[in-house]
From TrEMBL, chain B:
It comes from the Bacteria. Pfam families: PadR (PF03551). It comes from Ohtaekwangia kribbensis. This is PadR family transcriptional regulator. Residues 21-89 form the Transcription regulator PadR N-terminal domain.
Length: 866, 110
């Protein structure tokens, strides 16, 4: 009798062949093998055998399996669920811990996944999305390739004319300037509109409720409104076809409403409440054909089937061609659908963008589920002893291991399903609040079968993930051993549990450190000296008659005593509206392309904003009439331009010479998280859109504002009274970071809570199983402190290992995050200490009650029952 | 229902089942084909064909005896049914009809 190996081939055969055919096939194969062995020798016989067995993997065999319901015994399944629910009811505290932990993990993860899903749908609803591209500029600035997505207004008409592959191209510009809209008595200021080309409505899928998308923007004086803006202007009345008046400065224009666009969906990067054709600007003589003026977004729709890469090669030199080689900025197209998540460029190549945040959120969601699953795994394996008799009896009465695995999986799936249902309920309740926090309109579409399918599959997967290991562990018990009552605690299981707890706490540690660092960074920037006095300063936009009446308005503001100083500027002091690398100065390197922020002011900016003069003087038109071309530098500009004594230097800008009269200390125009850039404050020869004033703080604020309103209405009767406090606007600069902080805080708390739940369950069990030991120790004279130390030592050691392992990843990740800010705090070691202390204290509080109770139990009561 | 046809390999196996009588089981059929026709056949192909013929009702099977050589596994003995026999006969006759249509070359010394 020759040995017919290998065994795995026979196992494979038994899987491939249906049971009722197996015997015959095995017999024939064996017979064949022995014949081969006689004729060819054992080695090649074996090779042939394997080959012959492999050949049974063919449809003629595989499809002979007869699937029948009795392979999945329904009545046994029902029994498993019955047993599972009884087990759950009997161990209420463990069930609660498991379900609560899983519910919280699932709720957090589900919220995150809904948010992530939303991010991927941005601008995916446009019918032409695959062929729409946004035009970008690429040029070498300060030695590096820079990319930006503002392009010249002439680009769109030019590419439509010159390239056959272009289906259509539109310019789109939200200049952010406020216009006054009037209809009868209704007066509304809006800056949320855009100028665009008529093709916009056919290129993008923003459906019109009323009007023809082909014609709606065809006329220079036509306007398209969104439903909500139309409602705002007209109440419930029909807006379509009506004429409204738009005011800009002192001019008013009549527009006919030729289209009402349906409310914009939340998942679009466009946000407009009205659309006006560029033709209108051109009809009033503001035709912009300058290739150097990158002021609009340009969208290009290519004909289907066009290779965008090849097209980019063709379009590259368009600016150079049209400026006869003067402007060497390159144009390239980038897919619209990538704009939301992949719009950051490093040195000219795509380098991620928002997708990094999205990935991070995904990892966070998965980790939340994982730590909840860890609770389940640890509690199930720790309590395995209690179920061992049941396993033994089931095995003795004939249960296969396979059916025991199914039974335990049923239990975990049941628990996960309960947690899943609760999580869906919580998500429904929390979704509006969470959506507001992340500024997304999130919905759980519960009419959609696919959503429920995904949730169902998710629950099943998590149930199997969480229950898989315990099921195999529990079902592996040897019935003889467990029924005899010999203990089967393995140190390897303990070790595995500890590894999982270490993971949980290192994750919690990472999150706590993240929360602390985010908070540190925000506080650090908030405490930064802005360089000017934000309190008691307000600004108003120059609208309507204010431009004409500025002098009178200013005089009366000062005379009435509500303002101590007034200045007009080109932009609010909290924003940069203009910058340029074309400034000229004495000794400038002709190759240098240093961008300098541009800010116009007529006079008194130093006193109004409370700037600090380092050298020279403020502008003053009364004393020095030539101050209309005066200029103040900030310290960064002095450094960038390399002046030793800047006063009196001449600086050229757009053909005008400006003379430096003073230097001010650096102050923050941009984000408080950025470095101060070189900046010039130019005199009254510039253009002005904003009035800044410092209020008289000796008078009550309400009184000041009341007088201000009176004066405003006197000098600017058409426009509604409006003002902004600079300190409020300044606070808004922190909104994004504060959101980050709120989100990290929420999920950190969630993670810590789940981890501590698991810790609670585990320590409860450990104490329960050591009750007798504690009793004996007490009898022999152990103090409460001894016992508390004994019981807490183990878990604390695990937690400390978790804390230590969490540190490097947190340090690395948060340094990366901090690197994204120019003005950033340093990562200080005390953060680690605070985070570690926080975890140890929270974990300690979680277990201390149990431990003390166990240590104080009277040994008589724990030892008397056997 | 149109008339059923058998493939070449099916016909071969069916013939072998008819010929081997009480000794018609997978390994024996394979061996017979290999020794008589000098043709390499794979055991799995023979089995699949046997099952297909049984589905079509040309053969039937019963479990037979085990031998030491088979590791104690029992054989499945196949026997041809009258339908199978009729099928074989029909095929043979049809083939003969066609054969007669081929002009026979006369071997003569003329």
């Amino acid at each position: 009798m020759k040995d017919a190996r290998p065994a795995w081939a026979w196992r494979l055969l038994s899987i491939l062949c249906p049971d009722y055919l197996l015997e015959e096939i095995e017999g024939d194969l064996l017979q064949r093998f022995h014949k081969d062995a006689r004729l060819l020798g054992e080695r090649s016989a074996r090779r042939r055998l394997v080959w012959n067995i492999l050949r049974y993997c063919r449809p003629g065999i595989l499809f002979r399996h007869r699937f029948s319901l009795d392979l999945i015994p329904i009545y046994m399944l029902a029994n498993y669920f019955k047993v599972a629910s009884r087990v759950m009811v009997r161990n209420k505290s463990f069930s609660v811990i498991n379900i609560l932990g899983l519910t919280m993990g699932l709720t957090g993860a589900l919220l995150l996944f809904l948010w992530i899903g939303k991010e991927f749908t941005y601008d995916e609803f446009h019918a032409n999305k695959d062929n729409i591209y946004k035009a970008w500029n690429r040029a070498r600035v300060d030695g590096a390739l820079q990319c930006w997505d503002r392009t010249p207004r002439v680009l769109a008409p030019t590419v439509t004319q010159e390239f056959a592959a272009v289906e259509r191209a539109v310019s789109y510009a939200d200049y952010n300037t406020a216009f006054l809209f009037t209809k009868g008595d209704v007066r509304i200021m809006k800056n949320s509109g855009a100028f665009t080309d008529p093709q916009f409505l056919t290129m993008f899928s923003f459906p019109l409720v009323k009007g023809d998308p082909l014609k709606a923007l065809g006329n220079p004086n036509s306007i398209v409104l969104t439903e909500d803006f139309a409602r705002e202007l007209f109440g419930g009345k029909e807006a379509f076809g009506e004429v409204i008046t738009i005011w800009e400065e002192n001019n008013s224009f009549d527009f006919t409403i030729t289209g009402i666009v349906k409310e914009l969906p939340a998942n679009t990067s466009f946000s407009f409440q009205y659309l006006i054709p560029f033709q209108f600007l051109e009809s009033i003589g503001e035709k912009d054909t300058y290739w150097g003026n990158n002021s609009v977004d340009t969208y290009v729709q290519l004909k289907p089937g066009t290779d965008a890469n090849r097209f980019n090669e063709e379009i590259k030199d368009i600016t150079r061609k049209h400026t006869s080689g003067e402007n060497i900025t390159e144009i390239f197209l980038y897919p619209l659908t990538k704009m939301r998540l992949y719009s950051r460029f490093d040195n000219g190549v795509p380098a991620g963008g928002r997708i990094e945040v999205v990935r991070l959120l995904g990892i966070l969601g998965i980790c939340l589920i994982v730590i909840a699953c860890i609770n389940f795994i640890n509690l199930s394996t720790a309590r395995a002893q209690k179920r061992s008799r049941e396993v033994g009896v089931r095995k003795v009465t004939g249960a296969h291991r396979y059916s025991l695995v199914v039974q335990f999986l049923c239990e975990s799936i049941l628990i996960t399903a309960l947690a899943g249902i609760l999580a869906v309920v919580f998500v429904m309740l929390l979704l509006p609040a969470f959506g507001a926090l992340v500024e997304q309109k999130l919905t759980l579409d519960y009419t959609n079968v696919a959503v429920w399918g995904a949730i169902g599959i998710g629950i099943l997967t998590i149930g199997i993930l969480a229950g898989g290991y315990p099921a195999f562990y529990l079902s592996s018990f040897n019935p003889v051993r467990v029924l005899k009552g010999s203990p089967s605690t393995g140190t390897s299981r303990n070790f595995f549990r500890k590894v999982l707890v270490v993971f949980q706490f290192s994750f919690a540690m990472t999150l706590i450190i993240a929360t602390l660092v985010v908070q540190e960074q925000i506080e650090y920037a908030q405490q930064r000296d802005a360089g000017y006095a934000r309190e008691n300063m307000i600004y108003q936009y120059i609208t309507g008659d204010l431009e004409k009446n500025y002098e009178a308005y200013k005089n009366e503001l000062l005379q009435s005593g509500i303002a101590v100083s007034v200045t007009k500027t080109s932009s609010p002091i909290t924003e940069v509206w203009s910058n340029s690398w074309e400034f000229g100065w004495n000794g400038k390197d002709p190759q240098s392309k240093i961008a300098v922020d541009r800010f116009y002011t007529d006079e008194d900016i130093v006193s109004t904003a409370g700037l600090t003069l380092v050298a020279g003087r403020d502008m003053d038109l009364d004393k020095y009439p030539t101050d209309s071309t005066a200029l103040l530098l900030n310290e960064a500009a002095v450094k960038a331009m390399g002046f030793d004594n800047p006063i009196g230097e001449l600086i050229t800008d757009s053909g005008t010479e400006w003379h430096v009269v003073g230097v001010v200390k650096d102050f923050l125009l941009r984000s408080p998280f950025q470095k101060v850039k070189p900046m010039v404050l130019q005199g009254s020869k510039g253009w002005f859109t904003v009035i800044h004033m410092r209020l008289n703080h000796n008078r009550p604020l309400q009184e000041n504002l009341a007088t201000l309103e009176k004066l405003y209405n006197k000098y600017n009767p058409v426009y509604p009274f409006d003002y902004n406090f600079v300190d409020d606007v300044y606070k808004n600069k922190f909104i994004d970071q504060e959101k980050t902080q709120t989100i990290t805080t929420i999920f950190t708390s969630l993670a810590i809570f789940i981890s501590c739940l698991g810790l609670l369950g585990l320590s409860t069990y450990i104490i329960e199983s050591r009750v007798k030991e504690i009793g004996i120790r007490k009898i022999l004279g152990a103090s409460i402190a001894n016992i508390a130390q004994l019981l807490s030592k183990d878990s604390m050691r695990t937690i400390i290992v978790g804390i230590l392992l969490g540190c490097p990843s947190a340090w690395w990740g948060l340094n990366q995050w901090l690197m994204s800010f120019e003005y950033r705090t340093t990562f200080e070691p005390w953060i680690f200490l605070v985070a570690a202390a926080a975890i140890i204290i929270i974990a300690g509080l979680t277990i201390v009650v149990q431990i003390v109770r166990a240590a104080r139990t009277n040994p008589v009561s724990s030892l008397k029952q056997e | 229902m149109g008339k059923e046809y058998l493939g070449e390999f099916e016909e071969l196996i069916l013939t072998m089942v008819g010929a081997l009588q009480e000794d018609a089981y997978g390994a024996a059929i394979t061996e017979e084909i290999e020794t008589r026709l000098k043709r390499e056949v794979n055991l799995s192909a023979v089995h699949v064909t046997l099952y297909r013929l049984e589905d079509k009702g040309y053969i039937k099977s019963k479990v037979g005896g085990a031998t030491n050589e088979r590791g104690g596994r029992r054989k499945r003995i196949y026997t041809i049914t009258s339908g199978g026999l009729a099928m074989l006969r029909n095929m043979k006759e049809a083939r003969l009809e066609l054969w007669k249509m081929i002009p026979q070359l006369k071997m003569s010394g003329q």
